[in-house]
Amino acid sequence: MSAGGERFGSFGLATPAARRAIPADDAITLLKSGAAEPGSLIGYGNGRSYGDSCQNDAGMVVDMRPQNRIRSFNAETGVLEADAGTLLCDLIAHAAPYGFFPAVVPGTQFVTLGGAIANDVHGKNHHRRGTFGCHVESVILLRSDGRTYRCSDTDNAHLFRATIGGMGLTGLILSASIRLMRVPSLDIIEKATRFRDLGEFFDLADAADQANEYAVAWIDQLAGGHGRGRGLLFTGNHAEHGSHAAARAGSRLSVPVRPPFNVLNRPFLTVFNAAYRWKKGRSSDARRAGYQGFFFPLDGVRDWNRLYGPRGLFQHQSVVPEAVARRAVPALLEAARRAGQGSFLTVLKRFGDVRSPALLSFPRPGYTLTLDFPNRGERTLRLLAELDRITVEAGGAVNPYKDARMGPETFAASFPEWQRLQALRDPAFLSSFWARTAKKLEVRRGAAVAAE
Q1: What is the pLDDT of residues 1-32, one digit of tens each?
Q2: Rounded to two decimals, what is the model's pTM?
Q3: What angle in degrees, to the nearest 10, is found between the helix axes of 325-338 and 378-393?
Q4: Is residue 366 within 8 Å of residue 354, measured between CB atoms?
Q5: How would you label 235-265 residue by residue, b for 16+ Cβ within 10 Å and e otherwise?
């Protein structure tokens, strides 16, 4: 915790906030001196990760937010260079008047550039644009040997690939250059299509991807009987004629305090899902939407994660191969129903075959399902372990960037080449996630070798 009492926690609020934080300038000085101790640091952006990949129980987090200068922008090519702590909303505001928009955006605009790279984030258009890392030109990386590295496809390419999706473990990202995409406007022409069940969704998904820049489905996870698996498929494209002005990135509403109980309980979710399905799905006609409402709907309520109460939430995101998705996705949803756990946000979308340059990247061809659960202790942990099991047995993977509790075995099954990142990890950088998963695997591997 900083001297001013600021918390450097994760968005899920289910794990303790960092005990100690160091300003970026002090961390840079420390690293350049070569005096950083092993495992003492991990970069911290704007705290939008759900898990503990941005935490370091044994050391300090580096507050990168003051490092937020946009260094240059080429209005002809759309190449933008900025400090790692620059927020996505500020990048959008800077480039929008020139007709450019990030090629890939996650579900919130309040992530930092460094965080987007370290997590190799994805959006609603993976089938066309891949991950955020696909659009990174270069990264400036400071390591604990005191040296600054320019990393790209041609310079220090091994570090470049390890840093994208590397969860901040290869060193401190100081700045980066990214390629934005030219768009006719920021407005989105959106269409909502109802589907009766998951079978109908899968029948619609491929054609939706072929015809649209963006596609994502919302699932009414609590619906049973004949309504099981029903939902809405949202598709969108940038409007040919519309606004080039970025909207103010503020929140009209906020949750000022953390309630003493979970507000997003089953009765509330049942009513909410019914109302949401009626409001969003009452017309299948195309309609114009502002980009913030289409890409970042939850940003309109500041600190909405507090609604989960004092114990926070866990998010589980999995991806399963397309060949088994019609079996595996229903199994994941059924496991949650059997456990009596309601998910406030249940999102299903299709990943394409655009390959990321990252050494370790979560998206891969198939379908990805995201579920949010209030933290009810051991009961929720058992459910999450069951979701892990279903995913791994289906040949899929669990997203480490949103995780706060997966075991080493699940991580190894999801990322069998994890040792390649471990070999390039800067010794001064360690996260609670990596200590909980990869470091334990390293210890086991060492013990097995010693026993031979």
Answers
A1: 444 457 799 999 998 888 899 999 999 999 99
A2: 0.94
A3: 170
A4: no
A5: bbbbbeebebebbebeeeeeeeeeeeebebe
